[in-house]
Write a structure and sequence with these properties.
The structure is a single chain. The protein has about 450 residues and is α/β, with parallel strands linked by helices. It has 15 helices and 20 strands. Helix 4 packs parallel to helix 5. The two termini are about 35 Å apart.
Length: about 450
């Protein structure tokens, strides 16, 4: 029983790849279980009592996530080695999730020793995250002559100023894993030559998840074309560069379910999506909107999006949109039947910058279709997040109208959570309708 409790304590809230760059290094353990301070550490369990210490030390699975954050001393190296030993188990085969972060040239000897110890266990790597400075690239040379990591499922590389050959070598060995499904690259991979390296080395026909800090348009399409039968999620913080100068062939990405694009830079939305068909699409996130610097790009952006949804015949469930300088266009576009399956809507900006925009959208969300006695807009909506609203009372009125459309308090309604934020001052409304409606039954 305690083993299960300990495992949940350490790993219960862990989700996906970690980002150690956001972890402050002062006055914290440099060898720990997770990059995030919100997650728990197995070392804490060893300080409760003798029984807990004994059980914790002899339970390999709670030591299998290891984050080395700026290791600088011999003590850090010994602690890292101890974690590797505890995580191995009797057979020495427990899969490892490793994160190594160091962006400065200090304490290179300690970092080199940590990397050497990690390489000695490369046959156990399940997930590896490397966020490293230029001077660390020589420490990985022994890895390039080793056998492919047999169970590696995901990697994340953010390599500051590494040479092209070293970048190619580490990407190649990680991509040689027969189990690889998920790849994530930092900004250093954006220059043309390195993006070509990524496109050519990665077995895209096996990847299900990919993320980039920046991509230009043509590599974006090359990746989608190469992974058309496998990729399910792609995230790009910036689609960079100018509008495309040459033709791009149409791509049908049959399994792609989720697209997250932080910003389109100088690239127009229509350049990206007019050449795509996405029949499995369920989630779209555009927190900065269609074009951050061009208000006139909003109209073709919405037109292109509606054509994409119609052409794909998909059922969009989750949608995040921001940066709207034309709230009336956004509201009218969202009224399209193509959004009727939406369950989560997040509007990240724009509502507070136009005095009439909250009224337009909230009025549309309040409308009831007489023939069905259900909300006209997004009848299946479960979660609504609105940023920069002017009137919290108006949001409450909208919620009341939608609840009433389904028969009032005590009756089943899809809407479960509504959050609203003022233009300045943070969230001022966070309604859990599940609890509210339960109290009325």
């Amino acid at each position: 029983m305690l083993v299960n409790i300990f495992t949940h304590y350490v790993h219960g809230r862990l989700a996906g790849l970690q980002d150690a760059s956001e972890r402050p290094s002062s006055n914290l353990r440099r060898i720990c279980a997770h990059a995030s301070l919100r997650l728990h550490d197995p070392v804490d369990l060893t300080h409760v009592c003798r029984l807990w210490r004994s059980i914790a030390i002899s339970t390999p699975r709670i030591w299998t996530s290891i984050c080395a954050h700026n290791p600088e001393s011999e003590g850090d190296v010994k602690m890292f080695e101890l974690w590797l030993q505890r995580s191995a188990g009797p057979s020495g085969t427990y899969p490892l999730t490793l994160s190594i972060y160091q962006r400065t040239a200090s304490a290179e000897q300690a970092l080199g020793q940590v990397i050497a110890l990690a390489i000695s266990q490369h046959q156990r790597w399940k997930i590896i995250c490397l966020d490293l400075f230029r001077g660390s690239q020589t420490f990985f040379k022994p890895l390039y002559t080793a056998a492919p990591p047999p169970i590696l499922r995901a990697f994340k590389l953010d390599l500051d100023s590494w040479e092209s050959k070293a970048t190619r070598d580490i990407t190649k060995i990680l991509c040689s894993s027969p189990a690889l499904k998920s790849v994530h690259f930092g900004l250093e991979f954006f220059p043309h030559g390195r993006i070509d390296l990524v496109v050519n080395l990665i077995p895209w026909d096996r990847q299900t998840d990919a993320s980039f800090k920046a991509l230009s348009l043509r590599p974006f399409f090359q990746i989608l074309s190469s992974s058309a039968e496998s990729l399910q999620q792609i995230s790009v913080k910036l689609i960079a560069g100018t509008r495309n100068r040459g033709p791009i062939p149409h791509v049908t990405a049959r399994r792609l379910r989720s697209i997250d694009i932080g910003s389109f830079g100088r690239t127009h939305f229509s350049d990206t999506f007019d050449n795509l068909t996405l029949p499995s699409l369920r989630k779209l996130n555009f927190p900065r909107g269609f074009h951050r610097d061009d208000p006139e790009g909003q109209t073709p952006g919405w037109e292109s999006l509606l054509k994409l949804l119609e052409r794909s015949k998909c059922k969009l469930r989750v949608f995040t949109i921001g940066g709207s300088n034309t709230p009336e266009l956004m509201t009218e576009s969202l009224k399209s039947p193509l959004f009727q399956h939406l369950k989560t809507l997040k509007v990240t900006s724009g509502l507070g910058t136009h005095s009439d925009s909250p009224v337009q959208l909230l009025d549309a969300l309040s409308e009831v279709q007489q023939s069905t006695q259900q909300p006209r807009l997004f009848p299946q909506l479960e979660v609504l997040v609105l940023e920069s609203v002017c009137s919290v009372d108006r949001v409450r009125e909208m919620v009341s109208a939608r609840v009433a459309a389904y028969g009032g308090p005590g009756r089943s309604t899809p809407l479960r959570r509504v959050s609203a934020q003022r233009e300045v001052g943070g969230f001022v409304l966070d309604m859990d309708l599940t609890a509210v409606l339960a109290s009325c039954t």
